[in-house]
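Incident review: delayed structure delivery

Summary: a single-chain prediction request sat in the queue longer than the usual turnaround. Root cause was a stuck worker, restarted by the on-call engineer. No data loss occurred. The affected request and its eventual output are reproduced below so the record is complete for anyone auditing the incident later.

Affected input:
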Amino acid sequence: MRRACVFLIFSCALFLHIVDSEAGPACNPACTKELNPVCGRYVRPNGITQQCTFANPCLFRLHKCQMGEPWVSSPGACPQNTVDCERQIRG
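Output delivered after worker restart:
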């Protein structure tokens, strides 16, 4: 009887974990190809600022969602992209 209770509790916990992970927000990859550049900036935990130009606000939001990092944007292209910007944008 005890084994059955432990198994039932474990099964319920596993089910709830799976349901919870599937219910999380998904990143919507549907973006237009409009050219309306935005400059995205992210200050890393080590204090270094990452700065990348995104073709439009939708692509910026998609990147922010996929990375799960607190990027901020401003209108227009960045004065200069950081060295690893291409790798950041492409993944």
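Verification: The first strand starts at residue 38 and ends at 43.
Action items: add queue-age alerting; document worker restart procedure.
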